[in-house]
Design brief:
This is Ubiquinone/menaquinone biosynthesis C-methyltransferase UbiE. The chain has nine helices and nine strands. With 249 residues, it is of the alpha/beta class. Helix 1 (12-26) packs across helix 8, helix 3 (41-53) crosses helix 4 (74-82) and helix 7 (177-197) runs antiparallel to helix 8 (201-212). The chain binds S-adenosylmethionine (SAM).
Length: 249
Amino acid sequence: MPTSFGFTKVAEGSKQALVDDVFHKVADRYDLMNDMMSGGMHRVWKDAMVSFLAPPRADKSGWKLLDVAGGTGDIATRVVNRSNETVSAVVCDINESMLGVGRDRAAKAGLSKLITFSQGNAEDLPFPDKSFDAYTIAFGIRNVPDIPKALREARRVLKRGGRFLCLEFSEVDVPLLDKVYDTFSFNAIPVMGKWVTGDGDPYQYLVESIRKFPSQERFAEMVREAGFERVTYRNYSGGIAALHSGWKF
Ligand SMILES: C[S@@+](CC[C@H](N)C(=O)[O-])C[C@H]1O[C@@H](n2cnc3c(N)ncnc32)[C@H](O)[C@@H]1O
């Protein structure tokens, strides 16, 4: 079955290696480029995601987060800080280069005991059933070749009563903003990427992959099809990003 790697059709089996190559290339400059590409907005959206998750503030029960495609650990760090360092988090990512940057950041922040880093594929998570209280994935799922499989894995590793949250670039629903956003994305982002990292191609992929991702409604349907209940979503910045939520009961 062919799948999309940005705007290019590739065999499903070859997509992951192409994605991995993108993130190996950008890992060192990933955090800087995130700020530049989004004008710092990714921080606001991630803060909003963690507020919506509302992790316990003073946990004594062993509450545990799994942040998949967690890269350099932005979501895990926020969740652990929000809990006053009383919960723990596992950052799972397929890419050792991204995990390496995350490990260093956690060590510098003194959070290595609470945040652990584990290499693994979202489609085949290396964790037992029902082992986490919450599952988050931020700007990660559009990179995964088989999204329905990753969603079923998310549900499998959650405990009953567990929460699924997915933050992803989405479909802009504000007239004019869509045109401005398109022009900025396709012109400025690959150029910025080339300037900062020396290679614009990974950023061309990032922009194209955003356009290929399903609409908010369609993705909500996919989350429901994976067995999640009470599925809702909210748009951020006119739909530039959207947060999908679901529960495992
Ligand atoms: C755009 S980054 C997002 C990183 C982080 N969540 C954030 O919001 O800053 C996408 C991440 O997805 C990871 N990824 C891609 N395919 C994956 C897969 N099949 N399983 C797990 N992680 C994957 C990449 O290695 C990369 O770190």
